[in-house]
Amino acid sequence: MEFNLKKNMITTCLIFSLGLSVNALQVFAQETASQDVLYKKEKENWQGAIKSQLELAKAKLSLLQAENELWLTKNKVKTQLLLDQSIKNLENAWKASDSETRVQIKKLTQQVNNTKTLLTEKNDDVILQIDSLIKSSQSILNTARAKTEANSEDVKNKISTRYALVTAKSHELKAIIALEIDKSPEEAHQEMIKAEQAYHQAGKTASKAIAEQVMKLKQQAANVKSNILTNSSVSKAQIESLISATELQINRYQETVEQSNEARLLRKHYAQLEAQSALLKAKLALYSNEANDAVLSYLNESKSWYSNLKSKSSDELDDKLTDISANIDEAKQFVHRKDKEARTKVSLLLEQAAEMVKKE
């Protein structure tokens, strides 16, 4: 028992007080300095793309609500307020967007302002104009989504790379423990084999620039592995330097993990806005006496957004998603039967959807 206690204490010391190979670290830091600037820029672009997508979805929702309001209640005052809200959403989207998307948003904002003028002039073409605005907002939104999906794949790769680097570090720590405490070069050799494999895995998902550095770490691990059975004192110093260099990369990837968590929350909100938008389309289709297939298509679209959310939600939200999905299925039955209550059911769904967004 005393031996195990001593082993645990020494292990802790090794983990938190590893000797550093200063020259090796300085070289590695110099090689990665320029990459840090790129990471910062990537982070800003990623966050901007997600926020832009969310604000564009809000703008589209406001435009759909404006169309509903004007079509169903003829309430021009409320329609005007909803158009104003869409402009605010577009302004927020503009701030978070890249230069290419900003041009499109600026053009759409001007079109919304023109529509507001038509509304005050009692122009009969306002509803058609709002419908055109909705289509334009959807087009910009599709472009923004494509960009965030590309970024999403990049973030997944970074998280995978970080996990592999943490795995390599873990095996290297075990290798030092095997050398210093267990006095087992053979066991340390096996741990370094595993560390080398982890670097190989990290190289698969790393960006080109980082992959080159990871391959250098892999080569160092291979050298340690070769020397470990013949010269353990040299190997220990090499492992310590390797761990420190690996930690530099791991710490840089931490921002990516935090970034991913933020993106997950924004995406959840975005999916709810899209589901709500589909329900608004279903309501419009019902009141304008469109074919049942069109109404059902919008209801299915809404349910699909909620279903995608379900696998990534908390237990509390999961219950709400189950409930609203069941209510969508019920509304579909009313639509199938061409029941007059279908309109009421869809209106209630919209209230439920709006309440869910409000509580998030």
> Which percent bin holds the helix content?
over 70%
The largest sheet is: none
The DSSP helix count reads 11
- Give the overall silhouette: elongated
Question: What labels would you give this structure?
Answer:
360 residues; mainly alpha; disordered N terminus
Structure description:
The longest helix has 56 residues, at 232-287. This protein has helices at 2-16, 22-72, 76-96, 99-120, 126-180, 185-205, 208-227, 232-287, 292-310, 315-336, 342-359. Helix 8 runs antiparallel to helix 11 (342-359). The protein is built from 11 helices and no strands. The protein is mostly helical and 360 residues long. 89% of the residues lie in helices and 0% in strands. The chain starts with a helix and ends with a helix.
Strands, helices and their partners?
Layout: H1 2-16, H2 22-72, H3 76-96, H4 99-120, H5 126-180, H6 185-205, H7 208-227, H8 232-287, H9 292-310, H10 315-336, H11 342-359
Quick take:
By secondary structure, this protein is mostly helical.
